[in-house]
Structures are given as C-alpha cells and as structure tokens.
Design a protein that fits this description.
six-stranded mixed sheet; alpha/beta; single chain; two-stranded antiparallel sheet
Length: 168
C-alpha cells in the first residue's frame, strides 16, 4: 500500500508527526505546498487544530482527495485527545470521525503570524477567566505563555496500526 503523508505545520508538531508516520510506513512526508503528481492508496494529512477546525483542510481537501483513494487526517492540538474532542473537531472540519486521529502538539507563539497570535491570546484569556481550572487548563495556559511541546511518538501508533491492518 502506497501512503503519502502531507503536512501543514505552524509550530512544527504536524511536520514532526508527518515525518514519523512516513518513516514508520516507509514513505516520505511532503509539505502541502509541494504536492507530488503520483497518486497513493492513502493520503494522511497532518495539520494543527485552529479554532476547533483542522487548519487548511477545507481548502486542501479536493487536492488531497485527488491524490489518493482514501484520505485520513492526523491533527495536533494542545488539548488531551479524547472522544468528545475528536467528534467536535471532525464535525466542525467536515471530516468523517473514523478518518480523524488526534495528537497533542506544541506551541511557540514566536512562530505564529499576527492573526494566529490574536486568536491564541483570546483563547488564553478565555481559559484564564475560568474560576475553576483543570490540570489541562493550567497546561494550556503555560503552553501559551512559554514554548511548550506535548508531542509524543505514542500518538501516531494508532495510525500506524490501522495502516498496517489495512495493508494485510
């Protein structure tokens, strides 16, 4: 099975995950700006979650679908992945839930453009206003204040397993 891993990365987490997925599956990771001509059996799009949606998915979807027989999405976010978050992101992004994998990402405000910085600042303020904060809220507040990485190789394991099962 030929797998193409495409990434769009602002903080570097999606690129990291795309490269690790490609390495595990024997392929290569390519930036969304340099899409190849050859088709694949499966395209895995790695990008961050921004305002509850997968960054760039809506605009790139037609091109990604044209490159492969099937399209999966691996999205990185600051929050701990869970079923509710997955359902919310899938719904807001227009992605079939069974084709979406979530992974924890990283944050470095210095790598963001001014629009994304405004969004991140507003998000941080909304969390800081909470009267009762969870451990995850505190982690996100810290991640927005200081360069932070939650990336772990364990987040790609379900993707690798699913691709290998599909190949059999």
């Amino acid at each position: 099975m030929k797998v193409l891993t495409v990434y769009k990365s602002k903080s570097g987490a999606s690129m990291y995950y795309a490269e690790e997925i490609a390495r595990a599956l024997g392929g290569e990771a390519v930036n969304y700006r340099r899409l190849p001509q050859e088709k694949a059996d499966l395209v895995i799009y790695c990008a961050g979650v921004n305002c509850g949606k997968v960054d760039g998915y809506k605009a790139l979807r037609p091109k990604l679908e044209a490159l492969g027989k099937e399209l999966w999405v691996a999205a990185s976010c600051l929050m701990v992945p869970n079923d509710k978050l997955r359902a919310d992101v899938a719904s807001k992004s227009g992605i079939p839930e069974e084709s979406l994998y979530l992974m924890r990402g990283r944050m470095s405000r210095s790598r963001l453009g001014w629009v994304d910085r405004l969004i991140v600042n507003a998000y941080g303020r909304s969390i800081e206003k909470k009267t009762e904060k969870t451990q995850e809220d505190h982690e996100i507040i810290n991640a927005l204040a200081f360069p932070t990485s939650f990336t772990e190789i364990k987040y790609i394991l379900p993707i690798i397993k699913a691709v290998r099962e599909k190949s059999e």
